[in-house]
Amino acid sequence: MLMAHPAVLKNLLEQYDILRLLHAENGSPEVQQRMEDLAYTLCVSTGTRDIETALIAARHQLPGARPEGDSLLTA
């Protein structure tokens, strides 16, 4: 599987986190679409199918990620 460059992932994560903090899902159609686009891009970039898994996977691919944080394993 191809992996996105860490700088790209960092940028996508930052944009998504900002929109989520601003509750963009309740914003204008354009802002909602941007959030959906970021979620889709994060999923494609990490080879995942849902945004929560994509966020965890993207964070694990960043330099300095610690394996003991945000586990990808399910109980």
Automatic annotation (TrEMBL):
<dbReference type="InterPro" id="IPR033457">
    <property type="entry name" value="DUF5133"/>
</dbReference>
<dbReference type="Pfam" id="PF17196">
    <property type="entry name" value="DUF5133"/>
</dbReference>
<protein>
    <submittedName>
        <fullName>DUF5133 domain-containing protein</fullName>
    </submittedName>
</protein>
